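=== Structure Prediction Worksheet ===
Name of assembly: unnamed complex
Input type: mixed (protein and possibly other molecules)
Chain count: two
Listed entries:
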Amino acid sequence: AQSVTQLDSQVPVFEEAPVELRCNYSSSVSVYLFWYVQYPNQGLQLLLKYLSGSTLVKGINGFEAEFNKSQTSFHLRKPSVHISDTAEYFCAVSHSGAGSYQLTFGKGTKLSVIP
Amino acid sequence: GAGVSQSPRYKVAKRGQDVALRCDPISGHVSLFWYQQALGQGPEFLTYFQNEAQLDKSGLPSDRFFAERPEGSVSTLKIQRTQQEDSAVYLCASSKRARDGELFFGEGSRLTVL
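=== Predicted Assembly ===
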């Protein structure tokens, strides 16, 4: 079984400032990692994913995340946020073997961008 | 439509009533998932279909929960004899391939049990 911890439930940040949303996972097997975003009144949308290869992955809207196996982390970063980035962000993990379709989500981090 | 469509968007039920929640996935997506999201929590896996076959129902919380996808397209999640703890947003997602994690989610059905 795996689990995901998102350490910050809410993150306020000023417009054009950098942001990092933290995600740590626990798993006894190799994993796939994901970040999903939920804008107000919309469904969850895939932001980026790590399956294999380069540990730095780039996603939509200028976001990127780095897989750190030794620290079991997959933190999400953006160098300069916009008002439109205000949303809830969910980190998720699945294991890379049989049954890898099942995602385990964190509790989410609400990002509020302040003008 | 182009996205995953769920109905109803909001449902209020009295405790003990049966409810049915519908999901219309993206055309051509063979994989379909149901997740439950309680207030302040992340989504939790309920069940997974590949076409009409329900391959995993390990996340269904009790035998009051039942899901079907008889023709491999539209799916229905049914909850019998609803309880207050069933109050949550029920999310449906579909994908072309189950394993790469790129799920397309609907906006969810918010169930409130009084």
